[in-house]
Amino acid sequence: MVHHVKRQFVFFGGKGGTGKTTCAAAYAYALSRLGIKTLVVSTDPAHSLADAFNRPIGLDVIPVAENLWGIEIDAEEEAKKYMKAIQDKMLHIVSAVIVEEIKRQIEIAYMSPGAEEAAIFDKFIELMESIGNPYDVIVFDTAPTGHTLRLITLPEILGIWIEHLIEKRANAMELMKVAAKYDKDLQEKIKEDPIIDTLQARRDKFALARKILTDKKNTAFYFVLNAEKLPIIETKRAIEILQKHDIGIGGVIVNKVIPEEAGPFFEKRRVDQEQYLKQIDEMFGGFGVARIPLLDSDIKGIEQLSEIAPLILKLDEM
After folding, report:
1. Closest-CA residue to 125 (of 69, 67, 73)
2. Looking at the whole model, is its pTM more than 0.85?
């Protein structure tokens, strides 16, 4: 039986070390068991997705289980590929004279608002465009919170930045047109402007990403945290930022909750935790809160993932 897909894009956010990757992997695995074709994507430089599934996962999509695929994105690799693609495209269509200028512009672009993040974003968009064929759902195990939030707000920042570049470029072209009045060669060269075309294509891509991210019916962000003071403050801040950008919150997952039967050694910590759990329910109850108990070992492989999967899947029903 194929379960109805609630959302096409699911992001798992939270600090490194909270068990975010495990939750993303368990959620993706739970969906795949329901007959939903699911791709799980990690941009976490620690590459713990491979650990969660207990098998190597690399830069190319590989099958992990029935209806489940995985890929780990390397930001640095993607950034290099991304700059090279832009460069090749440019150098292919312009004359030697402005090659140096273009190389310089590309170097600047590379140093511009987070080239690695922009490259990852490109990869996200490329993967998002594959929705429906072959995947029904894409689960993103994103890098730790601050970085991810910058990524999510990037379309707006870059959109403004690109508009500005297009405007500057258009002014330069106007000047060249004046200069080309008596120069047939130059007239031919500036008939179409590859740089403006490329910038506009980028702008459109970012607009698409923005549209996907703010489509609350199809996209949601889950936060994974531990029941401690700092993670609660950070999660609250992160949720506020996402809400300001109109991005849907799917729920909050509290990981490593000390069970009552943990015994006297954990008693003091468990009592402290009760306070934080109360706080979490008060603050985030409206989004839905799932709790995952502290397990006696790190999760390695599908059998253990399937134990916690139903706990996370419950959030979709809240």
Report:
1. 73
2. no
